[in-house]
Amino acid sequence: MTSKPGIGAVVTAAVLVLAGCGSATGQADERDLTVFAAASLTDTFTELAEKFEKEHPGVKVTTSFGGSSDLVAQIEDGAPADVFASADTKNMGKLGDLATDPRDFAANTLAIATPPGNPAKISGFQDLAEPGAKVVVCTIEVPCGNAAAEMEKRTGVDIDPVSEEQSVSDVLAKVTSGDADAGLVYVTDVTAAGDSVTGVEFEESGRVVNTYPISVLDGADDAELAQAFVDLVLSETGQKVLTDAGFSQP
Amino acid sequence: MPRWLWFPAAIAAAFIILPLAAIVLRVDPTSLPSLVTSPSALEALWLSLRTATAGTVLCILLGVPLATVLARTSFRGQGLIRSLALLPLVLPPVVSGLALLYTFGRRGLLGQSLDLVGIQIPFTTLAVVIAQTFVALPFLVISLEGALRTSGTRYEAVAATLGARPTTVFRRVTLPLVAPGLLSGSVLAFARCLGEFGATITFAGNLPGVTSTMPLQVYLLRVDDPDAAVALSLVLVVVAIAVIGFARHGRAL
């Protein structure tokens, strides 16, 4: 190994890489907005982010979707989020003062997703307790799992799941692959999944309603811009995008 | 060696040690015993130990013949087979999980036929073992093939000229010669089994007592109960350190 030029090049390369990481903010008239949103909002918020970018030239919206409790933990650990939309009020509540002014913007109910054609012939919520039915639910830590547990309590149906997943997306993945007979997700997930699943609505679904709050976060770089995004979600345009996807009014 | 290498080398060492120290420092020593011995933690630990042991046994049963064939024979396409056998080592575990799902899943390549005879693998403890075996097998094969090549074939040839049959030679000469390599390979495979996460959560799912191993528990708990997650992480770190010490002691690392 040659000594001096070699290390010089390595150090230069390292400095360049580090510098590249630091200066990602870009020019002055370009603004960034980071939105953290529950996994069940993936389609609607992607659409709303595009609308927002069109209405605000020079603004780039970055979205991050995941289980609400996961996102809360990331925000608490200092993730650079400006806006947070949660799939339930409990997780928004965990943020305390970090969420400046939470407003409810949508509501969602549970639905059963089955592989196309519903091969296991699941026809209602009580069928999920049938022995031999491979049912996948969300783990109780995330809103969809909490809602599922609540639904079991209120209906007296005791589901014995084969897996407790991290988010609705993970539940859907196990259903679309055909390995689960049924998954308990939100009615909006069934709409969004289109032909890759067959949805089964059940009459008890109205007994558990998840309310979705959205809030500007305390550490937002540009609170005004963040508020503008929240306003868009609460506006008629935003509400139409949400209801088209199957969400109900809060 | 140029003296300046000390500086980047120290940074590299700190880069590895610091995060480990950070996790140890996050542990609350007063609550550690109760967190580590909680019923859910013990359940996950027990499941992890059982599956990792089963995975290691499968790795040995499958890996010893493969390593021997790769080390002791030469045939067309052997290089390709060797490269492919090492693939799970570099494949992202979540990709391994998807691949296993498309193989053993209900609509998978083999899973479809298995389903017809009533065998369903996803969501079972067997799925965890399969995922672990898949990702850990290359560790055993690499270690053992290296040991077999280093040990050479002289003693085997002598045994054969003395009239020992191939199976006897393999059992009485080859295997004892490479025992240290086999041991360290098995220990590494065990550690890899114990740490498996991505393929398990993709292929086997997550259910306490059935498929929710220690790494899955840590992942699950890190949001709602970070203290418990850190405590379980510490257990895994301790096991990992013990494994490395054991494998180094048994040479071939």
TrEMBL record, chain A:
Alphabetized PROSITE patterns for the sequence: PROKAR_LIPOPROTEIN
Alphabetized InterPro entries for the sequence: ModA, ModA/WtpA
Signal peptide: 1-28
Keyword DNA-binding in record: no
Entries under Pfam families matching the protein: SBP_bac_11
Residues where molybdate binds: S40, S68, V168, Y186
Molecular function GO labels: metal ion binding; molybdate ion binding
Keywords recorded for this protein, A-Z: Metal-binding, Molybdenum, Signal
Source organism, top-level taxon: Bacteria
GO biological process, one term: molybdate ion transport
Keyword GTP-binding belongs to the record: no
Family (UniProt): Belongs to the bacterial solute-binding protein ModA family.
Protein name: Molybdate transport system substrate-binding protein
Lineage of origin: Bacteria, Bacillati, Actinomycetota, Actinomycetes, Propionibacteriales
TrEMBL record, chain B:
Protein name: Molybdenum transport system permease
Annotated source species: Nocardioides panzhihuensis
Keyword Cell membrane carried by entry: yes
Taxonomic lineage from the root: Bacteria, Bacillati, Actinomycetota, Actinomycetes, Propionibacteriales
Record's subunit section: The complex is composed of two ATP-binding proteins (CysA), two transmembrane proteins (CysT and CysW) and a solute-binding protein (CysP).
Record function comment: Part of the ABC transporter complex CysAWTP (TC 3.A.1.6.1) involved in sulfate/thiosulfate import. Probably responsible for the translocation of the substrate across the membrane.
TM annotation in the entry: 50-71, 83-105, 125-148, 169-191, 228-247
Localization per Swiss-Prot or TrEMBL: Cell membrane; Membrane
Keyword terms: Cell membrane, Membrane, Molybdenum, Sulfate transport, Transmembrane, Transmembrane helix, Transport
GO molecular function: ABC-type sulfate transporter activity; molybdate ion transmembrane transporter activity
Family to which the UniProt record says this protein belongs: Belongs to the binding-protein-dependent transport system permease family. CysTW subfamily.
